Task: inverse folding
């Protein structure tokens, strides 16, 4: 079983990429919908929530734990690794940073994320560790979260919000050639974002890069499932009906309300 | 001391109206920023959070407790009244419903609110109790919360979002003459909302109506402060710096970060 943890439904974009990459695996996904969003909360609070969620998932005899939430990956990865020491714990920041460094020619990389992720500087540091001369500009884009949750992923509002965040970013630093979508909600708005930045800019979606990273880690450890049918189990800490309704867009398939089990942390 | 409770900073619009109405009173305001927003969460979870917050405020020897959060007022008022039985507990729904009934000529009243407030039907019921023949149309407008938190209260994005929610509402029911802003965040967007609905529609802001209601309740009970200087104490369950920064817009005065005390519930 592979555990996947997120503050809510956004991480279902990561789960979707994981299922596509590893179709024979069993997944258990936990969305902490009672306490979302994490992106505006302090590091201490996010660490406490992430540890509780990780312990709940660890009860499923995991072979790997994926922190699909960028904010939790940015601030809580070391704490979760220390607590859940028996299995590999993989966050979304390192794979995203790696993909950005590989994609960028100019070394000028932009990151859009939640307030918490930007403030912590995790993407900036992860990119600079790999590429010392990189220039990283990170800006918070919190309205994208609300738009994705509302299903307003295209149309005039999405376009106006994309211009609001991206026009100043690209006007100020002309040599940016790579944009990292540093929040699991943002791939839902990839069309509106592409419409603003144009075809020349490489867009890095950490969902896909994380899924590849997990597959490689399992293969290297010799513990990837080699056959049989995979499956997905969905857990939420609140409002399973909303989880099913909103989450269906992120997972790109219908979710029946009774597919989502309510748990208490 | 008058306690004021909200899920975050939105209720500061109610605190601001209370301070204007009752300048000689002492207020203690608690924003449950660790667990906001309440508007997308289940009734059970909101009741649990509201009880914890109310108990924390009750430790301040209150003479009155105001639930400034529409979502918490809608689902948790009876539970909080049962728990904090020693002082009057006043929510924002009943004063808002009363003001809407007084303002409407046609009896066709629209309510915009969070998902949780709309789903619970509290405004609809409170209006129909006072005016049996009223026609109430309630729609969720969650993006307004994100816009107010971001400070995007005017300009093209606010206008586009206001059209998105309000055009279908007013197109479908032509005789609406009164619009209730059923979330403490929404008065921040009153200008954008007015720009869409035009001058003919009465806009009911439950912050002001609740403040008048509280003053009347204190006067009738003979416990209103009659002189001296009032004051405000601010508590938050997370991220006091963000509370100060974002809250300043809602309270319409600067808030120093050390003015906000962090508490744990």
Result:
């Amino acid at each position: 079983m592979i555990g996947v943890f997120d503050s809510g439904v956004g991480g279902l974009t990561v789960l979707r990429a994981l299922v596509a990459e590893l179709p024979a695996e069993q997944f258990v996904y936990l969305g902490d919908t009672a306490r979302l969003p994490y992106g505006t909360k302090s590091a201490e609070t996010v660490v406490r929530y992430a540890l509780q969620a990780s312990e709940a998932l660890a009860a499923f005899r995991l072979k790997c734990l994926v922190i699909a939430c960028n904010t939790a990956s940015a601030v809580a990865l070391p704490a979760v690794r220390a607590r859940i020491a028996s299995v590999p714990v993989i966050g979304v920041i390192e794979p995203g940073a790696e993909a950005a460094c590989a994609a960028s020619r100019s070394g000028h990389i932009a990151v859009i994320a939640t307030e918490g992720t930007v403030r912590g500087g995790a993407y900036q540091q992860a990119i600079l560790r790999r590429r010392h001369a990189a220039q990283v500009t990170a800006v918070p884009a919190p309205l994208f979260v609300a738009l994705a949750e509302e299903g307003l992923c295209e149309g005039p509002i999405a376009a106006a919000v994309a211009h609001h965040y991206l026009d100043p970013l690209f006007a100020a630093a002309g040599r940016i050639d790579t944009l990292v979508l540093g929040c699991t909600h943002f791939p839902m708005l990839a069309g509106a974002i592409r419409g603003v930045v144009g075809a020349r800019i490489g867009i890095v979606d950490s969902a896909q890069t994380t899924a590849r990273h997990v597959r490689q880690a399992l293969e290297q450890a010799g513990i990837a499932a080699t056959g049989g049918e995979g499956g997905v189990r969905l857990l939420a800490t609140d409002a399973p009906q909303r989880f099913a309704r909103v989450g269906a867009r992120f997972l790109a398939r219908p979710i029946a309300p009774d597919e989502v089990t309510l748990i208490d942390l």
